[in-house]
Every structure is written in C-alpha cells, then in structure tokens.
Design brief:
about 270 residues; Receptor-associated Protein; about 85% helix
C-alpha cells in the first residue's frame, strides 16, 4: 500500500490545487484527490496491462512490451485524472463567458429601472442558468446574515472566470464608494465585449496553422507510415503480430485525442 505521506508531499508541490478543487466544486482535500487519481490510474493501467500480458503470451511477444505499455499508460492516466479540475474549470468558465455579457446588460437594465441591487441580483439568478448560480450564492449568503460586500468577496474567490471577477469587482467598488453601480457595470461590460472580440479574431488566426499541423502529424504521416511499414514487412519477411498492431492503434488514438483536445482548448471561451 502506498504511504499517504506521499500524497501529502505531492499535494504540497501543487499549491494551487486546493483553490482549483474549490472552484470546481470538488469538495475533497488535495491529498485525498491525488490518492483517488493515483489508484484510478493504477487500476486502469493494471487491467490493460494484464490484457497485454495474456496477448504477449499468446502471440509470443516479449513481456517487456506489456510492461512498458502499462507503465506509460499509468503515468498518462494519472496526469489526465489530475487535470480533471482544470477541465471542469474550463467548462465552467466557458459557460460563464457565454452568459456574462447578456447577464451584465440584464443587470444594468434592472438597476436603471430603479430595482434595488439585491432584487436585481436575485432576478439575474432566476434568468441565467450558470452565472445565475453565483448570483444566487450571493443572495443566499446575504439571507444568512453575511453583508453584501463579504458575500461578493467570497464569490469572487470561488469563480474561475476573470471577466466575471471584473464584473463583481465593479459592483463591490461601487458599493464601497457609493458610486452608481450601473455606470461601473456599463464600463466593465464594454471592456469585456472588446476583449471577447479580440479573442475571436486571434483564434481565427491560430486555427489555420493548427489545422495544418493536425493534417500532417495526425493524418498524413501516420497513414504513410503504416503503408510503408506494411511494405517493408512484406519485403523483409517481418511478421506484424496483433499486439504490435494494437500498440500502434493505441498510440495513434492518443495522438488524435491530444490534437483534438489541444484544438478545443484553444477555442476562446465566448459564445460565437
């Protein structure tokens, strides 16, 4: 059994993990989360390793291949499980960014119509699915006796969206200084809109070279490589056994997945 102190040590080296877990609504201590990722990766790699072991016995392939694949799969799986909070935060951020402009304008209209800030936040919470949860958290904290300033501060710490933090900071500063909240929100929404337009423009410029590299390294080169491998194996009388072909398929699948995830991660977190 792996000592729990190892997971505590890994957690100490990932100081931002506790914040990520809190923002991703994963209510676990960092060391417990790392332990769960470790054993999930271990069980997955062990199961596939046992499968490769029996295949290597059946087709007379060196056992070292199965061991190498198992070890590589373990580290790859562990790294991916550790990225789960980041992926959840990215998804949460994208959902917030899709609604932030519309929710901000809705809030401005409410305030300019004479609605109090408390009621305006409550109305936003009822009309927007994702960003409304954060506003509802503010309302719930206020109902439990927390001041509006402290409630907004706590939500600022929990949100993964920088633009949403800017919006909340404008509300918070306006409350503290006694300034007009709607004017501050108008300036923040205008700035966020300009930033989103720039992000979309930059994404369009990046997409063409990314697509070119995807075509070369994930489609053309693997296809040509497999054809050349089959030709050389025919001339050199080499036998391409099933485990070798399975390893090639797994590696190609990993390359395809990595490229697709990279392309998806480059997409701006805005509604286009």
């Amino acid at each position: 059994m792996v000592s729990f102190s190892i997971f505590r040590f890994i957690a100490s080296q990932n100081r931002g993990l506790s914040v990520k877990l809190k923002q991703a609504n994963i209510y676990e201590k960092p060391e417990h989360f790392i332990r769960k990722c470790f054993f999930s990766a271990f069980y997955m790699s062990a199961g596939i390793g046992i499968l490769f072991f029996f295949l290597s016995k059946q087709y007379n392939v060196a056992l070292s291949y199965a061991i190498i694949v198992t070890v590589l799969l373990f580290f790859y799986s562990f790294a991916n499980f550790m990225k789960a909070p980041d992926l959840k935060l990215l998804k949460k951020k994208r959902e917030i960014e899709k609604e932030i402009i519309f929710a901000g304008r809705f809030l401005i209209i409410e305030l300019e119509s004479g609605v109090t800030l408390y009621n305006a936040l409550s109305n936003v919470a009822k009309n927007y699915e994702t960003i409304g949860l954060h506003f509802q958290t503010i309302i719930d904290k206020v109902n439990l006796g927390t001041t509006m300033d402290d409630a907004i501060n706590e939500v600022i710490e929990d949100t993964p969206s920088e633009n949403f933090r800017k919006l909340l900071w404008q509300i918070l500063n306006s409350i503290k200084t006694g300034a007009n909240v709607s004017n501050a929100l108008n300036a923040a929404i205008e700035q966020i809109t300009k930033e989103q337009i720039i992000e979309v423009s930059e994404y369009g410029k990046r997409l063409n070279p990314i697509a070119m590299f995807y075509m070369i390294f994930a489609i053309i080169l693997p296809s040509i490589g497999i054809v050349m491998l089959i030709i050389f194996s025919t001339f050199l009388s080499l036998q391409l056994k099933l485990p070798v072909l399975l390893i090639i398929v797994v590696l190609l699948g990993i390359v395809q997945f990595m490229f697709l995830m990279f392309i998806k991660s480059q997409r701006p977190a805005v509604e286009m």
